[in-house]
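so the lab meeting is tmrw and i was supposed to have these ready like two days ago... anyway. pasting both below. for each one the top line is the aa sequence and the line under it is the structure tokens. i havent really looked at them closely yet so no promises
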Amino acid sequence: EDKIRIVLNKADMMNHQQLMRVYGAMMWSLARILQNPEVSRIYVGSFWNQPLIYEGNRELFEMEQDDLFDDLEALPRFAMVRRLNDLIKRAKAARIHSLIVSYLKSQLPMIGKDAKKKDLIKHLDVVFETVQNQYGVPAADFPDLDVMKEKLRKQDFTKFPNYDKALIAKVDKMLAEDIPRIMSLLPGEEQEKNRMGLGTIKGGVFEKVAMPYGKGIDAGIGENIWIVTRDKSKYDDIFNNLEQQNGKITGRIARDELVKSKLSNNVLGKIWRLADHDQDGLLDNEEFALAMHLIKVKCEGSQLPEELPAHLIPPSQRKED
């Protein structure tokens, strides 16, 4: 289960009450499927670059996103720990199975082996208790009783190995000394990786850009694609039919198109100032598309900013970081 990451994606499609119900139902269902005594961690959010439908859970989604990325980023660091834990589980399983089968073989008489085998399997719980008391094995290390009975019915007890004290001692030494010594080396290895800049994953989603907003002038914040691109092909069709000078249009030509929005001259003047980002008195195809986008934002009832936000700057005019 430690290799599984559970994500409730597109949770922005639900309001608070709906999300609470779905989350609770998911927790209940997972408990039955995984049969894990511990509560499973479920990451809730909207893990794509589109605006949220319901904004009410934005703060929760941002914290969940950070937690998930931190968890994924830490996976390489815990890979060795998981492998050691698997080794410990296998070693303990091999040890307890060796003790059980060697004890079963030691209980076989010279005559009547089959009858004794059936009796031992029938009272396997007594065998487990005897082995536990004799060798001091924790009860949690023993295999499932019913599964073990079924497997033993198909085995020939006479072919089981005898109790090997030296071999068991080697396993005990590995568990008591060798594994802890290896575990003690991990912090030093982790520090060395961090010193060399190899301790974390960089790039891509791990840059943790802001979650996109979806309203008014804030639409497109945190998205990898310029928000104006969504309608740019439509704006380009208009732009290409206008009179141009070296791929740009003048204020007079632009005004004839912009006034079709029926916005006031003051508002259109502000839109022109924001769209003419390079302040050359002309609009290229990106700046014209931006002007049309700002008109759309204003006509939908949102306010225009005093300065053009960073996420609306035309891609060709953005400074390289």
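ok protien two:
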Amino acid sequence: MDSLGKKISELCNQHYNQLPKKGKPATNQWTVLSAVVMEHSGIYTVITMATGTKCVGENQKCPHVVSDSHAEVLCLRLFRLFLLEDMMRCLRSEESFCLERGSGCQFVVKKNVYFHFYSSCVMCGDATISQTLPDPAENKIADNKGVGDKKRPATQATPPPQTKHVKLDETSRTGAKSLLLDDFQSDTLKNRSWRRTSVLRTKPGRGPVCLSLSCSDKLMKRQFLGIQGGLLSRFLSHPIRFSSFSIGGEFCLDSVKRALFDRLPDNTIVQPPVYKVEDIFVNSVSNCRSRCKDAEVQSTSSSILWLKRGEEFQHLASVKGKIQGATKSSSWTKTMLPICRTAMLHKAWSLNSLLENGDSLPENTQMVPFEEDNFSEQYQLFKSKSWYSVKKQEFCGHFEGWNRKMSRLIFSSIESNDITKK
């Protein structure tokens, strides 16, 4: 185990153990932990941390609900919020963590600042599919139906031998469904689409239908387009990428590299190191089973969201993409998380107004979800006027299935006089 990966793993787990119990799983429950660690001049600091294993169904998606609550995705969303707030610190001439003013309305990452990603287990999707040696039993000639173990008559022609194929380790096979149309419509054991590698996949699980792509696919996309996302691309001159990945538990290192890097359309992007670290996360599935012995274990439905804010921090617990404790009668303005699309879009517009006009948005400006299944022109405006749109076209041209996902009530409008700003 490499020293850097071990150092990051121990730092993240020590940080998690010091967090309050709010949002943490019970004794017989397990979860996944992810974190982003910032390195500045040799000093390592946890800036975002999240736990989670759940997603909401397609019928529950809306702009003010976080549809994908896997720890890796929540951690990326928190990182974008961290960048947004750091940009605001720069505008207020306060001491920032990782950014400084560049030319025009853009920001740049400070020198000697790097970002490292940690996950307590391998991400779902393509990274979980590993290869083993061919299975001799699968290459034997099968007897005809009804013949049994009897010898084949001499007059019967011997069928051609079956083509050997690389067997995939079924202990590490993924439950994520291939996004290829033929596989998606008939994803059975006979179809063997779970054997395919380097294809886009949805989230695994037996819950409501969810078309969110796997964490392997999303991390691959972010490593190509930048972990800052589309909204913040217009404020940055270059994409921000992780400098290393530290992953706990048992997994195939080659499979992770294939899932995150080898599938990318541009092979000129420098591949960061991937460290395989020991599973020391107290609430991992393996440690949970060891602790509970014969008792039944299950994944927790709650998530933790932790964000560093100056000398302070924000610690939230969420369930089904909303703040924990939210009821059906609660207003969505009180239940939405600060990393949902509605909240992030509003913060991005506020920042853009400060940069271009020197003033913030009106007090009565708020995000309101559309009634129809269409996209917000304002949301697309942020992505179209930057280098991000060109890189995304290249990415989606290489992965045609990415645009095949079902789109439902995802984006928000900008103006409303009915809701006052909190």
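from a quick look at the 2nd one: The CA atoms of residues 273 and 318 lie 32 Å apart. Residues 133-172, 181-191, 359-375, 406-422 have pLDDT under 50 and may be disordered. will dig more after coffe
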